[in-house]
Each structure stands twice: as C-alpha cells, then as structure tokens.
Design a protein that fits this description.
Radius of gyration: 18 Å
Strand content: 15-25%
Largest sheet: 2 strands, antiparallel
Cofactor: heme
Keywords: Heme, Iron, Membrane, Metal-binding, Monooxygenase, Oxidoreductase, Transmembrane, Transmembrane helix
GO cellular component, one term: membrane
Shape: elongated
Family: Belongs to the cytochrome P450 family.
Order of helices and strands: EEEEHHHEEEE
Number of strands: 8
Oligomer: single chain
Organism: Caenorhabditis japonica
Low-confidence stretches: none
Mean pLDDT: 84
Structural class: alpha+beta
Amino acid sequence: MYPLATLANARRCMRATKIGDYQVEEGVEVMCDTWTLHYDKKIWGEDAEEFKPERWENGEDHFYKGGFIPFGLGPRQCVGMRLAYMEEKLLLSHILRKYDFVPGPKTQTPLKLVGMRTTQPESVWMHLKNRD
C-alpha cells in the first residue's frame, strides 16, 4: 500500500527508442512513479486505494505484468527482495501465532505519510493482544 522508494525505479535511456506514442532520446532519465502505478484504477479497479490482500489469494497474477513492483522489475530488480520476503513471512508467522494486532488510541487512521523520495508513516501505533 505504501511503496517506500516511489521514484527509485529510474534508468538512463541507452539509445533513442519509442515507447507507445512517446519518443525517448538517448541519455534521458526515464523514471517509473511506483506510487501512482500501485494506485492506478485502470489496473486495480475502483477500489485501488483499499487494502485488499485477497487480491493475491489465488496465487495468479490477475493484474498487468509490472502493475505491482515494490522491488523493481527485470535484471536490475532489488537483490534483497527474496531475503525481505522471507524475513517478513518468518517474523509475521511468529508474531501471529501468539498475538492479534489491534488499533489503540494513538493509531492514525489513515496513516499520515511523510517524505518525498522515500515515504514512511509519521508514526505507527498498534497493540498486540494475546490470542486465546
């Protein structure tokens, strides 16, 4: 929902080329705005701004290739992607076995984001509640 480095997917055009109706000259920096891409209603539908993890339940890419690129795409994709995914699954599985995340009085809804090149929440306050 909140890509951290929204403008980090930049490349220098190595030779003049045409992409759709656009002519890109050699040496021009081409940048992918990940934030806009991840909220594009043409790709995700009218509910693009809603947190809906069920979009990935069936394990198939039911959206355009390149419609979700939190780690970039192609040969210059982030080398830490697999490690990040493994760490996140391991950590969440350990936490969720014992606790539920619940909002508290300081929880901001929606999150207030700060930053330009990299984005982060101003603060995140959640409580852990023991599972019965």
